[in-house]
Amino acid sequence: MIKIKEKISYFLSNLFIRNNAHSKYMLGSIFFNQKKKDYHLIKNLDETEYKVFSQTGEDGILNYLISILNISNCKFVEIGVGDYSEANTRYIYENSFSKGLIIDIEKNFKTKVSKNIHLWKGLLDLENVEVKSKNINEILNKHNLSDSLDLFSIDIDGVDYWVINELKNSISKIFVAEYNPTFGCNLEITVPNDENFSRFKAHNSGCYYGASLKAIVSLMDKKGYDFIGTNKLNFNAFFIVKDLSDKFVKLKDNLKNMSSYTDIKIRDTRNINGEFNFLDQKERLNLIADKEIIDVSNQEQKKYKIKEIISKI
Q: How crowded is residue 139: how many other Cβ atoms within 10 Å of its Cβ?
């Protein structure tokens, strides 16, 4: 009897999730169809934000970029998707069922993802593996997705800089990279390339991870990309391959001061008990003052304690 109840509960839960997702998808599609007529007027990325399945407004930003680039069957890779209930490529997948690869270290990854989407639809591949600078190209080669992509998105709360550094130049038309606004706008800095890096193990506050926006922008420039802005909450940076960036002249001409993109708007820091404590930038930096960072502004890549350069951040 208990097993029957569990099966019924499981069925109803999945049915609710699927129906809710379908409603979100339909509303998003209606919004995007209406919004497209104004895409030629866009001057800043934040004018395009709209959340369907993404964490914040990335769905809207990506729909705008994909539309302007006239991409009809978006081939993508996304690293760091959780159970795929909130992800940058979820709406894209639901809309076109195009070739894609999602990667995460989530336990029971395939089972959890299958509760949110029909894996038998489309051409979506899954990799349940921890992405590192040493294995990223092996993973991409395995799925024949090491170049000629339409979209690449990475959010692993850790050694993102070092993973991006290993990618081929101009790997995709659109590139989304997470950055750490705590590291400010002045310096090109990142956490060390530690294979076993884990954000909350590295520091319980969650403040110590990733790279500064300036470090990501500089690296992406070398990789063949132009920076065109961030999401409103200041943690995802968007790039267009240089060969196509002339389609977004208005965005580039209207870029704000870099400090505008590193104001702390996500107060997700935690105390030793794992509870939110809502720290500002200065409090965050003081808390992680003894942690090490790498200056990647030159080939020397000198290592510092944060307290040694805190006044420059």
A: 18
Distance between CA atoms of residues 131 and 284, nearest Å: 26
Q: Looking at domain 2-309, does it have CATH number 3.40.50.150?
A: yes
Query: Cβ neighbours of residue 289 under 8 Å, at least 6 residues apart?
Result: 305, 306, 307, 310
pLDDT tens string, the chain, 313 residues long: the values are 455 445 434 443 554 456 689 999 999 999 999 999 999 999 999 999 999 999 999 999 999 999 999 999 999 999 999 999 999 999 999 999 999 999 999 999 999 999 999 999 999 999 999 999 999 999 999 999 999 999 999 999 999 999 999 999 999 999 999 999 999 999 999 999 999 999 999 999 999 999 999 999 999 999 999 999 999 999 999 999 999 999 999 999 999 999 999 999 999 999 999 999 999 999 999 999 999 999 999 999 999 999 999 999 9
What residue segments make up the domains of the chain, in order of their start? 2-309
At 177 the three-state DSSP class reads strand
- Two structure tokens written together for 253: 């001409």
- Measure the CA–CA gap between 172 and 151, rounded to whole angstroms: 5
